[in-house]
Amino acid sequence: MEDHVSRPATSFPRSMADDILRFAPTASYFIGTGQKGELAFRMPMRELLTQQLHCRHGHMIGIDDLLMQDGSHHLAGHRGGGDVFTDSQVDSVRWTLLGARPLGQPARG
Fold first, then answer.
1. Which of 28, 31, 62, 77 lies deepest, with the highest CB count within 10 Å?
2. Where in the chain are the domains?
């Protein structure tokens, strides 16, 4: 993102769209903090990925530096003070975000 536009990104640059089209991903994700006005960047990007390229796309806004560094340990409350989520709930979220399931678990119908 930062190779194409400064934040807050208030538009979706054609150069970034061209790079995405050239790469033609089958899976993608946007993870980060959302900044004011960036919906005008994120919506066209998501539409390009999901509607035009039929790409599986994960879109996670509100992910701060602490969560990026601590990962699921932060979600599970391993910093003390009790669990925010159980390990099973954290695993469920992790697999849902990946669009996958653990080996040996049945697919949901």
1. 28
2. 1-63, 65-101
Tokens of 103: 């080996």
Q: How far is CA 56 from CA 3, 34, 38, 75, 97, in A?
A: 23, 20, 21, 24, 10
Q: What is the model's pTM?
A: 0.62
Which pair of tokens denotes residue 63? 């992910």
Residues 6+ apart with CB under 8 A from 30: 42, 45, 46, 57, 58, 59, 60, 61
What's the per-residue H, E or C state across 4-31? CCCCCCCCCCHHHHHHHHHHCCCEEEEE
Q: Which residue has the tokens 């469920």?
A: 92
pLDDT tens, per residue, the chain with 109 residues: 888 999 999 999 999 999 999 999 999 988 888 899 999 999 999 999 999 999 999 888 887 777 766 665 555 555 455 555 566 666 655 555 555 555 555 554 4
